[in-house]
Amino acid sequence: MQKKQKKLLSQCLTGGSLGVLLAAPLGALAQTTADTKPVTAKPKEAAVVPSVTVAGERPTNRIDRQVYDVKSDVSSTNGTAADALNNVPSVAVDPDGTVSLRGSTNVQILVDGKPSAMLQGENRGAALQAMGADDIESVEVINNPGAQFGNEGGGGPILNLVMRRNRKPGGFATVNANAGKDGRYNSAVNGSYNEGAWGFQGGLNVRHDGRDSTAEVSRDRLDPVTGRFVHSSQSSVGKGLNDMLGANGTLSYNLNQTDTLTASATYNGRSNDQRATDVYANGATAFIPASDYTRSTVRNGDSKNYSWGGRYDHKGELPGETLKIDLRVSSSDNDNDSNYANDYTTPGIADTRAFQHSDTTIKVVDFTGDYERPLWGGSAKAGYKAARTTSTFDTLYTDIDPLTSVAIVNPARSNRFEVDETVFALYGSYQMRLSENWGALAGLRTEYTDMDIRQITSGTDDKNSYVNFIPSLFATYKVNDTANLRFAYARRIRRPGANDLNPYQVYRDEFNVSAGNPQLMPTKTDSFEVGYETKVAGLETNLRAYYREDTDAIVDYRYFIANNVLLTTKQNGEGSHASGLEFTISGKLLPTLTINGSGNLARSQQRTQDDTGAYSTRTANSLSGRVRLNYQLSAATQLQMALQMMGKTLSGQGYRSPNRTLNLSARQAVTPRLSLVATVTDVFNQNKMETVINSATLRETSTRRFDGRVFYLGLSYRFGGAGGSTEREGGGFGPRMGPGGPGPGGGPPPGA
């Protein structure tokens, strides 16, 4: 493992990648959340371990989004970005890294308002589990993205990761080191230095982690000859801890009082090693006898993600007049080698060996410009975007003779597929105060999309281009000094991903294959929301009612292509809609006890086609929620409990069953600069993913359990700045009310 980390570190240094699309320019313009004011340290006299009270400005909700502070979470020093997102209301990240928001997996993830290749496609889950939570300042939940946001990488609601930044003069650094069960460990160093016109911040982190898993699949398929259901099963065990290395850096320079240049770069590397054993029991049909076999898999590979960018910020002469020009280039390369060995227990069936090499590459070039200025008593904003995303999928599958070791290419399981997507967009928005109590933000975005699709293996090309007009409208009404009403409408489109379009069948095992569908159409989504924000007994509360309707929704579609060989592909469903009530609550229950809670009572409905061609409508009602309690046991000791419960969600022809997890964390200040942190994830080891399908020809229950109960113990040390541990008022988590109500305040981030 140490050799792999040295290899990743070498790639990082030789690639010149030391940075990330993370931080805002030094001392520059307003960003996606309210800047944090300097803290005021007040050491407690005559205390063995001094305490510090932080009187900082909290992140505030904007007219088009909710902002959640995650940096004060006790587990942030040894958690991942996936852990941080799991603490955000109505957001769930499963152990495979799949992200859902209000039950929908059609979610875009941006970094400081911009797309990144490492957070697109199948690599996103691994990237979130490799990114440290300590790098994230706050998470913006944008359920109804406005005109400034593009539709690449999903086109649905947006989770914007606002990365940490420090603009104070002088130097500051933190070092974290953590060790966990079964040889797990992680360590990170983050720092910044600002002097005069120059500013630098960056970080380096390493992680050795992963989750072992077990899976059981119970399948009953219809035998068309006898009309009876035939039973088969699969059980799996997967093991493997992986090495991860990340590095980032941002350099900014103030040319003068109005102009700032910023350069940034990042590298993220991850090994993809795994050992798995699958046992299959295949029932007999009318013409095919039963067969049982065991498949052993040894997988090795690497994931490498690079990005770099440059930005120019200009402050105009008018108050609030800004110009931002931003160029970002990112790439993601996933390389895997899998060795398969199938050993049959049924007499007369020869054992088989195979080798599969797969290489997936995504590259994104994103060039945007945004201009904002006061106009007619409000604030007008306009911008452009030119983006190109290139995706390449290359799979080579060879059958190996177990006696002679001769390898023969299997053309049915080998293919190379490429997609080039080019987007040009213009948008405009206007925000103003209509009266003392009413404020509004309206926008319109126009996108031209051009797609070149090349199935290189079969020598076929396809091309598609279209124009979309995407409106949005937001309004707020100030009920009183502590309460706001919010209204939102937005239209979005979801283009099929490159992997969704590839028609070639990708081998997963002898009984399961997957393929894309080149005939997929974009999904159009119209979403509506009304929300009420106020304070109750000193607690900040939010209640939001929402409705979302999808046209041509892209859903999973499964059918048998041979005896017990199930193909999973995509199709456009007739439509779907979801509605619900969501609430959040945060604040102090007692002087030493802080609560952050949320819930989502949802109803979803899908109309889909089963494998017989018949259409059916399925409905699911679910209740999801989470609660996080922080208890300040003493000036030096802080305890935290986080419980989350996910309700039933629809998934293509089936649904995913509810699940729940409980995490515990503790922080003990040893000295004003040194803290001891302990965390236990999934205390009762109950985290699982269960999917149920019940169609005319298939009844299947798939359950996957993870080694979720993991213990970490570590140290966090702070260099520079004011000494002492920090405690943020209200626990530092939850949506915050403030600017972004009526009027032009709380502007959106650069166009994405």
What would you call the structural class?
Answer: mainly beta
CATH topology: Maltoporin, Chain A
What is the radius of gyration computed over CA atoms, rounded to a whole number of angstroms?
A: 26 Å
What is the number of domains? 1
Task: Calculate the mean pLDDT score and round it.
Answer: 80
Alpha-carbon distance between the termini?
38 Å
Percent range for helical residues?
A: under 10%
CATH superfamily: TonB-dependent receptor, beta-barrel domain
Please state the overall shape, judged from the principal axes of the Cα atoms: globular
Number of helices: 4
Strand content: over 45%
CATH class: Mainly Beta
Instruction: Give the biggest sheet.
Output: 22 strands, antiparallel, barrel
Low-confidence stretches: 1-59, 722-752
Instruction: Report the oligomer.
Output: single chain
Please identify, by name, the CATH architecture: Beta Barrel
Let me know the number of strands. 42
How would you describe the overall organization of this protein?
The protein is mainly beta. It has one domain: Maltoporin, Chain A. It contains 4 helices and 42 strands. The strands form 5 sheets. It has a 22-stranded antiparallel beta barrel. A 4-stranded mixed sheet has the order 2-6-7-5. The protein has a 4-stranded mixed sheet with strand order 25-26-30-29, with no helix packed on it. The longest helix is centred in the N-terminal third of the chain and has 13 residues, at 2-14.
